[in-house]
Amino acid sequence: MLNRRSFLAAGAAGLAVAGLARALHEPGPPDAARLRPDPEGLFDLPEGFSYSVLSRTGQRMDDGLLTPGRFDGMGAFAGPGGRTILVRNHEYWPHQDGGAFGANDELLTPAVRARLFDASDPVQKGGTTTLVLNRTGTAVERAHLSLAGTTRNCAGGTTPWGSWLSCEEPKRSNGRITDGHGWVFEVPARAAGLVEPVPLKAMGRFNHEAAIVHPRTGVAYLTEDHEAGLFYRFLPNRRGRLAAGGRLQALAVDGLPTTANRDRSWPVGSARKARWIDLDGVESPDDDLRDRGAAKGATRFVRGEGLAIDADGAVWFTCTEGGANAKGQVFGYRPGRFEGQAGEAGDPGELVLFVEPNDLALLDMPDNLTVAPGGGLVICEDGGGDQYLRLVTPQGRIRTIGRNAHPAKAELAGVCFAPDGRTMFVNVYSPGMTLAIRGPWERLAA
């Protein structure tokens, strides 16, 4: 299992260096050829695995609105009676077609408009939809719009109390955020309709990608999709109440201004001590939070993307264009013993460079990720050409477990597992589709 023991091994002895060395010299994942071609031309999987399509762009939902497109980040939650609930992001700008309200927004009622975060024109078409699935996780019992009035909702993450954090990437011009957005919003998974779009301003305003709350400490971690972004954490004033405010900080590794590793000076599998720097002016209308953080000593990350937390509390995240060849990295962060508590300053965490293949045949621009029930990390790609689902085993070996076979070759996103671990869900960004995939997941990390 990918857990605290393996993470500690990474810091102490260079986890998976041998396995990664082998992988780096292979021409490509040998198991890619073992995927079975899908006769429907949608998604190729290994022998013993199958998928069903749960949802597509344009389908009428139970609230009368249309399923928006541009499927991105997604979380899975336990629902009533053994059901699974999915909350899914839609990454829309106002001018783009295909939102929930139909052509020319004819389905946008006055009641819905009154609840939007920004009720002025143009209509912000981003947001989230919620799917309530049956007990097997293979069919939708109910679907509805759950967040509206937001923009470019990219990724996000889950909270221990059963809500989804939906993150915005704002519109910028001449060094300023120009559309009033760039926040994190909270969507309770069991909400039966639209929730009030309340921006969690203390969690900062920047080019948000993902946000996730640590189940043990209540601390939130956040990534930034920017070539000079930071890695953040949010210490809430009240555990479980993000809207009650808190402190935003950025991670710093002394002597390391950037993790880009273009000169390969950071060996894969090695760890470095990390500390946290307080940030101020976090509402940042000038979009300069990352620069002010770096000026105080925070370390840069090249396009931070997906976030996941394993069963032993290690935090894993991707950098889509990090590495010597800008093909992507996977980092792990082990929180300090007193993370988020009064003594946390005296016990720094550790940051490990877990994966950096520098070869698009192995991993091409890693994006969303999740922890697999049988061990390892499942990672969505957002590169060029074919888009794969990769599994990084606890030993650092990269395996191929799925391929988007649709001719549009859009990125994969929103990968997550049902609470019982039997079903994996993943989005095809465009044309928007959510798939439920079942099979012997415990075999994959073997």
Per DSSP E runs of 2 or more residues, the count of β-strands stands at: 27
CATH 4th-level superfamily? TolB, C-terminal domain
Distance between the termini: 10 Å
Task: Supply the number of helical segments.
Answer: 4
Q: Describe the global form.
A: globular
- Structural class from helices and strands? mainly beta
Radius of gyration, in angstroms, nearest whole number: 20 Å
Uncertain segments are 1-28
The share of residues in helices is under 10%
Précis, in short:
The chain is mainly beta. The protein contains four helices and 27 strands.
List its traits.
446 residues; mainly beta; Neuraminidase; 9-stranded antiparallel sheet; 5-stranded antiparallel sheet; 4 helices; 27 strands; 36% strand; globular; disordered N terminus
Could you explain how this protein is built, in words?
The chain has 446 residues and is mainly beta. The chain has a single domain (4-443), classed as Neuraminidase (6 Propeller). The protein has 4 helices and 27 strands. The protein has helices spanning 4-13, 17-24, 110-113, 289-295; strands at residues 43-44, 50-56, 71-78, 84-90, 126-133, 140-150, 153-158, 163-168, 172-173, 176-177, 184-188, 208-213, 220-224, 232-236, 246-252, 271-278, 304-309, 315-319, 329-334, 349-355, 366-371, 377-381, 388-392, 398-404, 412-417, 423-428, 433-438. The protein has a 9-stranded antiparallel sheet, covered by helices on one side. The longest helix has 10 residues, at 4-13. The chain is globular and about 55 Å long. The termini are close together.
